[in-house]
Amino acid sequence: MTLVWRPINPQHPAHRRKPLPAATPCALLTSAPQYVGVNISTYYFDLQGMLDLDFKGMAQYKGKLNVAFFMLEVACYTGDILVEDVRTHEIFIQRQGVGFRIAVANWGVAFSTSATLAAVAANAELNISQTGIEVQIVGAGLETLPILAPLSQMSGLSAQSLQTISQCAMALADYFEQNGSGLTPAALAVAPIPVGDFNQFNCFYSGQFGPEAIYRGKSLADALTEEAQYPQGNSYVVPSFARAVYGELNVGDGTPDPDAHALAGQILAEGRF
Amino acid sequence: MKVSVPVSPYIATFAGVEDVVLSLLGLAPTASLSLPARPPAGVKYSHVTLELQQTDVQGMLDIGISGAVTFAAQAKAQTFFFLSDLSAWVTIPNTDPTSVIVDATFSVGVRIGIFAFNLDTSMKLDAETVAAQATVKQAITAYQAVVLGAGLEAIDAMKPLITNSTGPFRVETLQTIGAVRAGLEALLADPATSLTPVLTSVTVDTAKVAQAVTNNIVAGLDLTTLLKSHTFAMERAFRSVPAQTAVEEVNAGKGPGVTAPLVAQAYQDLLGLSGMQPVPPDKQQIAANVLSAGRNL
């Protein structure tokens, strides 16, 4: 199962999700506890993505040439829960926590020279590119803390501000360890659960897909990656079933050898008369 | 055949079944996907191993590094992905004999996803070379760390590894990883520390999968026989052959490796047909759809 985490804005009405009550037939067990230290993630977005996350100040960079947007999230997570999208009734895993988000707009250079925040900071330092930043603090009880005050004083991204961010991340980790229970976590990101309940058609389809892919000499990773570009078929393929077929025919993670090719051919030839 | 399947750590109650490994949903009926076993307290872990392997965007997503996708899309150059796993693990047998899961591996440690471009690929690409190229500013790199399990905050070296995350992957980063490794070894050796590992992979028995999806109607069934029988049934239905005729064909030796009861079951479960009922065009289309799987590859 591939979970693609998407950051959300806890205040945005379209991002609102309903926690599933503990008594429903679906509940996430607490067997996957979180590391209680700090986590850092970066996301690369377009302008709309930034506005959806409520970084309103980013709108002023609309129309700049070669503008790249990053979002850096420094957070301590409290635990994942299952939630349901109110409109589509899809089930998501939701990650909650406290922390801060920094939006960075960088313009005037090609992406290849500004791919990482360190590169953005270095370019800005050398006056090669220009940057704009906006800071959000997430989780009630955190806004007024002096440890995070240096964040709001940053005016652009530089080597100095990277250091500030790193120091604030450390301070946040220490604070969370001692006072985490007094903070109110906010919803930070969701990931849809991309698998469904057992279904006969998908089982038959995946059982045909596996031998066919092996017969065509594809490794499992290549077959699944190619299938992902083919929506007519992709929704029926159960990746774990395809993996079981690859294991059964002794292919595993590699590419099929002549023996596997022959065996797949035998399976596919059944009933063709 | 026993097959190792990497999974996300989520175990949940799903559709009334407890302890379901969510990653496996759809593999077999949900009741056969349970994993009630958990590592006991004081369990002995393996030694800490550090591996670096080249992977693809999918591999990055699997460990929770979503940023890699847009990074690759925006870089417009060949992007290399590496996955470095610094962890200790323990494998325990499943306690539910009806489950397709034979055993499960729980791990504790750090996974580091590294993305890079402008790499000089004439050299052997291992962690040291990638870091060295980034240090001399030849290659552009970024890394992101994902922590597996809980209790690791006791390792002091962990904080710099995490707070510099998203920065370049340099020689200094390798030194930090070395320090984290020493810290993790020390934690594991100390009986007083409490580490909570997370589920990282399971071993699935393909014969049990075949038995679970066919509701155990054939004793000792293996997956290859199931695949052959399903293909046989679909090919015959596609040719408008009624269920009973298809079964007689198997009994007459026309389907080597095919089991007759599974052919009858396939007609019934997928097409709702039995006996000498003719195959109407819409059912024939279902068989054609199944047979088209993977032919676009």
List keywords for this structure.
heterodimer; A: 273 residues; alpha+beta; 8 strands; 33% helix; globular; B: 297 residues; 10 helices; 35% helix; elongated
Give your account of this protein's structure:
The complex is a heterodimer of chains A (273) and B (297). Chain A is α+β, with helices and mostly antiparallel strands and 273 residues long. Chain A is built from nine helices and eight strands. Chain A has helices at 47-52, 117-125, 149-152, 159-179, 200-215, 220-228, 231-234, 239-248, 258-269; strands spanning 6-7, 17-19, 27-28, 39-45, 68-85, 91-107, 130-138, 186-192. In chain A, strands 1, 2, 4, 5, 6, 7 and 8 form a seven-stranded antiparallel sheet that branches. In chain A, strand 5 and strand 6 (91-107) form a beta hairpin. In chain A, helix 5 (200-215) crosses helix 8 and helix 5 (200-215) crosses helix 9 (258-269). The mean pLDDT of chain A is 82. Chain B is an alpha+beta fold and 297 residues long. Chain B has ten helices and eight strands. Chain B has helices at 57-62, 67-75, 127-135, 158-163, 171-189, 206-213, 223-238, 243-251, 260-271, 281-291; strands spanning 2-6, 11-14, 17-21, 49-55, 80-93, 101-117, 140-148, 198-205. In chain B, helix 7 (223-238) crosses helix 9. The longest helix of chain B has 19 residues, at 171-189. The radius of gyration of chain B is 25 Å and the shape is elongated. The chains are: A alpha+beta (273), B alpha+beta (297). At the A-B interface, strand 3, strand 4, strand 5, helix 2 and helix 4 of A face strand 1, strand 2, helix 1, helix 2 and strand 7 of B.
